[in-house]
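Suppose a classmate hands you a notebook page containing two proteins, each written out with its sequence and a corresponding row of structure tokens. How would you begin to make sense of it? This section walks through that situation. The first entry is reproduced here exactly as it would appear on such a page.
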Amino acid sequence: MLKSIGDALIAFGPVGVFVIGFFDSLGVPLVGGVDFLLIYLAANTPHVAYIAATTATMGSILGNLILFRAARYGVRRFARDEAPEGKRRKFRLWFQRYGLLTVFIPAVTPIVPLPLKFFVISAGAMNTPVGRFLGVVLLARVIRYYGEAYLGVRLGEDARGFLTHNAWNIAAVAVTMALVLVGLVRWYDRRRVEA
């Protein structure tokens, strides 16, 4: 089935990747998602691999932005304050410090199933600035999708196996990045308090 979807994707080229990236980021579950299909397209039509990575990034940003905005306006309009104020405030403060990191890590990590949609919705609900949110998603998606296009061009169909085989290594890199960024945030906060 994935091969037939991949063949249809090649027929639509980068526009197909845009549509799939949009719906995937909006929250519509897609088997294989953008990652495998982008690799398939890059392996079979390398001359459009980086254009496809660009359109996948654009579709993903648009889908995430709509989900983010829906969460922001939905919370304002329909949310009921069920949690005690202390717990809400504590979570809000934590999310202000580390929230965009929780968006970046699953957005940049292929294969390993991390719950990006939950963090996108949380970012919208916590009134994260739109520019910062978009910057984090853009950086993560550029790294991820251009990396996959590169692997697809270089390794062909073997790129999927490479990602699957190295899933734990990719997860370890993501966790290491998270720990380094948490350390940098804490270091910055200490220096700011000392000043």
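The notebook's second entry, a different protein, reads as follows.
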Amino acid sequence: MKALTQLICALLLVLAMPAWADIGRDEAAAVAQRANGGRVLSVDRADAGGRAVWRVKTVTAQGEVRVVLVDVATGRAL
């Protein structure tokens, strides 16, 4: 019974977390694409100034490679 109660409490904690807590790799790629267009080449998790970010490398239609940092917590391009 105690194990079941602990499991239920753990599930409730997970369900209570906000959906926007952290954005994923695909969401970061979409943010970077909207920010500067082009095609996504890679998405890597990194640290920028003590904050967790997604480092998204894109290439524009003109062949320019650009890097967009996307905040993991907020989903905003930096």
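A careful reader of the second entry would note: The longest helix spans residues 2-16.
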